Amino acid sequence: MTMSGEDEADRTRRGSGIEHPEELPPAGGPIAVARTFAFIDLSGFTAYIEERGVAEAVQILALFRLRASEVAARRGVRVAKWLGDGAMLVGVQSGPTVAAVAEMMARVNELDLRIRAGVAAGGVILFQGDDYIGRTVNIAARLCDVAEPGNMLATADVADTAPPWVSRQPAPPVLLRGVGEVTGVCSLAVADDVTLPPVPLART
């Protein structure tokens, strides 16, 4: 059944989270939200399995997920999905999301593998509470696909929110599958003069 324009707008309106219960869309229905998305993956993981064996590769994957989870939690960013040797991260704000990905990249480099990442921000449809649908998600995923190992590609608006300890370099326009050409892309990474402290131990 096709919804009328008015009904669809009502179902997908941007909410503040503090509306009167009668003003909220139906439970489980789509709602428009603004989020920052980051896709990360371990570059060369398949080759690593072939060279080092399954047991060692599984250990590295477990460490990768542990590091990513620790950093994301401390930055207020959510690991929305594990994607094999990668992950989809969701943040309410771009700055903490960029900071989380940059730190993850630096910490995983210590494991002899490198992360590549793509980050984008904008409006999407949140469906059934945990599924995000929209062009922004696709841009972040495709930026990750074309990023070089050890490289984070971010859209211009996201790069503008990067913290001072994250270096920023302009990148040429990129042609993304299913999206088209995206201009203003920047390459982000932890600055060379930044030293990472040990990861704080979780309190029990």
Explain what you see.
- This protein has 204 residues and is of the alpha+beta class.
- Helix content is 34%, strand content 30%.
- It contains 6 helices and 10 strands, in the order αβααββαββαβαββββ.
- The protein has helices at residues 5-11, 45-52, 54-75, 94-109, 135-146, 156-159; strands spanning 31-43, 78-83, 86-91, 114-127, 131-133, 152-154, 166-170, 174-176, 180-182, 186-190.
- Helix 2 (45-52) packs antiparallel against helix 3 and helix 3 packs antiparallel against helix 4.
- The longest helix is centred in the first third of the chain and has 22 residues, at 54-75.
- Mean pLDDT is 85; it is low at 1-13.
Q: What's this model, at a glance?
A:
This protein is an alpha+beta fold and 204 residues long.
